[in-house]
Amino acid sequence: MKKKIYYYDTDAGGIVYYANYLKYIEEARTEFFASRGISIQELAKTGILFVVARQEIDYKYPVYYGDILEITTRLADISSACLSFEHEIKNQDGKLTTKAKTMLVCVGHDLKPRIIPEDIRKAIS
Questions:
Q1: Whole-Å CA distances, 94 to 17, 48, 68
Q2: Can you give the residue ranges of every domain in the chain?
């Protein structure tokens, strides 16, 4: 997924504010699901939600106003109720700026963990 950095993404020093990376990788995960025919919004209507249970981010190199990022997302692991993703963000020069790991838990509207439905498991594997 490509992401252009705008002024509002940055802090007073012109560098992307650290918390914005969470939005970028959330967008990339949503696109990961969409590219496999899965709408997170439609899943939620059926009572299947994925919530972030753990997030790790390693900031390797700053990202600046005007940069064009390439965000790659891959499924690293899948268990009965959890999905683990790995993300890499590179700038327009191919320099690695950020690495992240995200663990999602499948839950129902009651927010209790549930087994990931088989059709979703097949679509993302």
A1: 20, 36, 10
A2: 2-124
Could you give the CA distance from residue 60 to residue 76 in angstroms, rounded to a whole number? 21
Angle at 33 between CA 29 and CA 39, to 5 degrees: 115
CATH number among 3.30.2350.10, 3.40.640.10, 3.40.50.300, 3.10.129.10, domain 2-124: 3.10.129.10
Is 18 within 8 Å of 73 (Cβ atoms)? no
Q: Which of 9, 11, 67, 93 is catalytic?
A: 11
Report pLDDT for 113: 98
CB 24 within 8 A of CB 76: no
Per-residue pLDDT tens digits for 88-99: 999 999 999 999
Residue 11 annotated among the catalytic residues of the structure: yes
Tell me how long the chain is: 125
- pLDDT (tens digit, 9 = 90+) per residue, 6-40? 999 999 999 999 999 999 999 999 999 999 999 99
